[in-house]
Design goal:
The protein is an alpha/beta fold. It has 14 helices and ten strands.
Length: 414
């Protein structure tokens, strides 16, 4: 199946190259016809998203109130700044609910656990881990297999993420429905006003959670429970943690994409995966383009790795999500490259085309694609449009790089 997916991707690239060649040396109206076709698909997708968002707003799932069931919060850490880790742990301890915090020191060399936790209530915090760095997956496995006590639900978060007081309650209430196996939280940007990049990232995060995940949640098919804030049933983790920690891709052990993989495993096992609006955590966004590029490249590699993993079973378990992944996230971006390249060539020959053709076309597609933001967060519209320019002129090429280097372990999470 993996070979078939690569062959399919290669064919899409060949078609994209053919469109580029034909647009330059044959019919230069190809890009306009493709643009119109893309608009039609985008409009259909917008109506689908609006319908699912309306369903979430008008007919949301009804959950029972939290009943005091024990909840574990697992925080893997590796060479984190002691003061930041301490603040993360304190924010976890402030969360409402019957909670216990587990800090897993993944071979830190800066005495992170001792320096950060020396003034923390150790009755509610357990520290464990490895003497050497083994990665976030192994840290999660260690906590699940060796540290957990009688907790029924498990919240996973990062060592640089601050939790809202009510986020645990919001995260675990969906588990009152037995079919729900994983819950995604709402991750927001703490440093959203630092510079132009963090401002664009804040809009990107808002769209990712409050439009994309909320829309997917209507059908119980959230595609990724962010590693910054997610909750799982303990029995699901206990049953799958060894497979999760030992996942390989093309013969090499996986070191990134752990959040997508856990989400995919939950969907594979027949669980619904939902988004808990109001379960808020805050974290910092990259403040330099170099760090942002590395982060996005790592995430994009993780997406391709997990798409290859999920496509074979997703069409049976969640066919709508399968269509969204294959068509909307894989085929259309790759197919667009050839047309976009040809338009840029024409724009070099005639710069006015860039100002009066390319950029307006991209903005109009983005306005249609992200139409829900006008209704739900109009204050983010201009930032969303700015991120669109960044995405199409810079990040579009990252998709090809990530696809060609998906096996690379550079810039791994841990």
């Amino acid at each position: 199946m993996e070979k078939s997916i690569y062959i399919g991707t290669l064919l899409v690239l060949i078609v994209s190259g053919a469109m580029f060649t034909y647009s330059l040396f044959g019919d230069n109206g190809v890009w306009m016809r493709y643009y119109v076709a893309y608009l039609v698909v985008a409009i259909a997708h917008v109506w689908y998203v609006l319908a699912t968002l309306a369903k979430e707003d008008v007919l949301p799932r009804k959950y029972k109130k939290y009943d005091g069931t024990p909840v574990a919060i697992i925080i893997p850490t590796f060479n984190e700044k002691p003061e930041l880790l301490a603040e993360t742990v304190r924010s976890a301890l402030r969360c409402r609910g019957n909670i216990h915090v587990y800090v897993v020191n993944d071979g830190s060399t800066n005495e992170t656990d001792w320096l950060a936790l020396r003034n923390i209530d150790r009755n509610r915090v357990t520290v464990g881990g490895y003497p050497d760095n083994r990665g976030k997956r192994e840290a999660i496995r260690y906590a699940v297999k060796h540290l957990l006590q009688d907790e029924k639900y498990v919240v996973l978060t990062d060592s640089d993420t601050l939790l809202d007081e009510y986020c645990v309650l919001k995260l675990v209430e969906p588990f009152s429905i037995p079919k729900i196996g994983a819950v995604a939280g709402d991750v927001r940007i703490l440093n959203s006003e630092d510079n132009w990049l963090t401002k664009l990232c804040s809009a990107y995060y808002w769209i990712a959670f409050n439009i994309s995940r909320k829309s997917q949640s209507a059908l119980g098919q959230v595609s990724c429970c962010s590693g910054a804030l997610a909750a799982y049933r303990r029995e699901f983790l206990a049953r799958n943690v060894d497979e999760f920690a030992e996942q390989t891709f093309r013969g090499a052990k996986c070191t990134y994409g752990e959040d997508r993989h856990l989400t995919n495993m939950a969907l594979r096992d027949g669980y619904d995966v939902v988004y808990a609006q109001g379960a808020v955590a805050i974290t910092d966004a990259p403040t330099s383009f170099k760090k942002f590029w590395k982060q996005q490249l790592r995430w994009r590699r993780g997406f391709y790795q997990e798409a290859i993993y999920a496509i074979p079973f997703m069409w049976k378990m969640k066919p709508v999500l399968w269509f969204e992944i294959v068509i909307w996230e894989l085929v259309l971006p790759v197919l667009s490259i050839g047309v976009f390249l040809s338009v840029l060539v024409y724009a070099v020959l005639d710069p006015s085309l860039l100002l009066f053709g390319v950029i307006p076309s991209l903005l109009s597609v983005s306005i249609i694609r992200y139409m829900p933001i006008f209704f739900y967060a109009p204050h983010n519209v201009f930032r969303m449009l700015g991120f669109t320019i960044l995405s199409n002129f810079v990040m579009l090429w990252q998709a090809v790089i990530a696809l060609l280097t998906v096996k690379s372990k550079t810039w791994a999470t841990r």
